[in-house]
Amino acid sequence: MTNAVTWARRNLFRSPFDAVLTIVFGIVGLFIIHRSLNFIFVTGRWDVIRVNLRLLMIGRFPDTHVLRIAVTVVVLAGWAGLLAGLIRARQVRAGRVDVGATRLSWRRVSDVADRLWLPAFVVLLILMLTSTSGPWVMAIAAVVAAAIGRLIGPYVGRLPLIGLPGVLLMVALAVVPVILFFYVVSAVGFDEWGGFMLNLFLAVCSIVLCFPLGVALALGRRSTLPLVRVVCTLYIELVRGAPLFVLLLLANVALGFFIPSNLTPSTATRAIIVFTLFTAAYMAEIVRGGLQSVPRGQIEAAKALGLSPVRQMGLIVLPQALRNVIPAQIGQLISLFKDTSLAALAMGLFELLEVSTIITSQGDFRGQGLIGETIAFAALLFWTVSYTMSRESQRLERKLGVGTR
């Protein structure tokens, strides 16, 4: 009690002006909390969410192929658990963590719960809104698959990564997401996807593609070859100077004037290309800032060891540069995820925000002013993913010691 009073005096009531600010903003905060809780539990009419939950999550995805989504989610959960266990085992072998870190103890479970409590809560909330048992079965199977993968991972991680077994293991881990991707796409094309699943798909594909492209552009801009440096600089400045919405409109409308119709990619593919090219330009500048933050002595030390320019960059300079700009990188990727909502306005894709607006015009809900409920639900999903990405980046920063010497 004494510590709480001391803290309040030092931080909230240090001076009369601080006391006034604390009281005023405390009242405002309590008013906002009261109105929010009243909207959530009293006045909010959430039937529009429960009835249209399927549209909000997966859009117009055909019923006959929904099982493919469930299989993909379960396999990805097991793959992620296996990968986490494998990485932890490799860290133990390298001496970066103790041996007990590979065991699934209560401490480890508590750590995972602290990291993933928000997405777990939102998933549980969505499951409670469902009217069938299918989503519950999928969620339980995904949790079980992730736990089994985490238990098996340390044993797989003991395999040597040098030679044929290591190569086969790495290839198998890399191929699993690709196989799952074609497993879903072979049944249902991009243009029939929708809802929050489409937002996630656009974001994940763009993130995976834009990062290596951004690194390559950053290195190209610092190249000693004039042609490479000029081309990369022109690309970065041109793309960064153009609004994303305009680029999406051009990809949707003007692309047909330059490419034959039989070669024109699908709308979702065009959106991924635009998001990738646009974000890569910003990522290149972020990485370039990280490269400039690496002390000159590091490069000189690498040269003194006789490392080639490629090894200097790949082993010494680039790891430090990427480590120094983790917050900026994650911030740009979060912005990319939120920008996927522009795909509906510019390209007509049936993503989450578009569904949230359209369902209020249904016969049972027309004219009832339910846009607040639908937008609040969409905002919750976007915020959950963005906040989780931010928390994981902060955890990675602490683990790598970003900002410390």
Structural summary, described in words:
- The chain has 405 residues and is mainly alpha-helical.
- The mean pLDDT is 86.
- It has three domains: 2-43; 62-187, no CATH class; 192-405, MetI-like (MetI-like fold).
- Helix 9 packs antiparallel against helix 10 (226-240), helix 12 (267-293) packs antiparallel against helix 15 (326-339) and helix 13 (296-304) packs antiparallel against helix 14 (309-324).
- 77% of the residues lie in helices and 0% in strands.
- The protein is built from 18 helices and no strands.
Name a few traits of the molecule:
single chain, 405 residues, mainly alpha, MetI-like fold, 18 helices, 77% helix, 0% strand
Main sheet summary: none
| Spatial extent as radius of gyration | 25 Å
Distance between the termini: 36 Å
Question: Helical percent range?
Answer: over 70%
